[in-house]
Amino acid sequence: MPSITRAPSPGPERRSVVEAQVIAAVERLLAQGMSFTEISVQRIITEADIARSTFYVHFRDKSDLLSRLADTLRESHFTMGVVWEPTGPSGGVDRLAQVFEEVIASHRKHFTVLSAISEIAAYDPAVRDFYTSDLDDFENRVIEVLRAQQSAGRTPADLDPVAASRVIVWGGEQAIAHHIGVDDGSGDAAFARELARIWWYGAYSRPAED
């Protein structure tokens, strides 16, 4: 009986190179005004200059591709957010505003892909799970930080960390998406500053009720 061998899985370095090529290709196609549903796999591999077999080594189909794009971008945004701490030399409201400027810049750079992910997530559970997973992780991180701040006496005990984290994390994500859609970039610094102040004075350093 002839032996059946499986093609070796690509190494991490090769995988990252191919994923970068595919992400860039999809972004270029979306920037041309095409919707993600209109873009065929053949169009993607032609734009990315890779073989069809290479595409299917890395992605099962277009939904898997979009899920991976969501995962890559959200992980990047999550990493930006978790480096900030309320206290310490790199903490405080001014540093938080800088973090939001970085997040907004990344959202703006990848806006077409993020818009496509949001569109497909409305009816594709697999994409939606990837789309929301990092926000869930970020929400849990904010809950953890707020509780630590409460324990240290820096955040009032009457604040509900779970409710507050839902408002500022999910509300902030929607606000950033809307801002990028209506602003040409000239208002990014002001928007980041106001968002940071809302987080800081609305939750982290909110005065206790009498």
Walk me through this protein's architecture.
This protein has nine helices and no strands. With 210 residues, it is an all-alpha fold. The longest helix is centred in the middle third of the chain and has 27 residues, at 125-151. It is elongated, with a radius of gyration of 20 Å. Mean pLDDT is 84; it is low at 1-8.
Attribute tags:
mainly alpha; Arc Repressor Mutant, subunit A; 72% helix; Tetracycline Repressor, domain 2; 210 residues; elongated; disordered N terminus; 2 domains
**Outline, from the CA principal axes?**
elongated
What's the CATH class label of the largest domain?
Answer: Mainly Alpha
What is the straight-line distance between the termini? Answer: 82 Å
Instruction: Name the helix and strand elements from N-terminus to C-terminus, one letter apiece.
Output: HHHHHHHHH
> Superfamily at the CATH H level of the largest domain?
Tetracycline Repressor, domain 2
**Total number of distinct structural domains:** 2
> What is the alpha-carbon Rg in Å?
20 Å
Number of helical elements: 9
- Report the uncertain regions: 1-8
Q: Provide mean pLDDT, rounded.
A: 84
Per DSSP, what share of the residues sits in E-state strands of 2 or more residues?
under 5%
- What is the second-level CATH architecture of the largest domain? Orthogonal Bundle
- The CATH topology of the largest domain is Tetracycline Repressor, domain 2
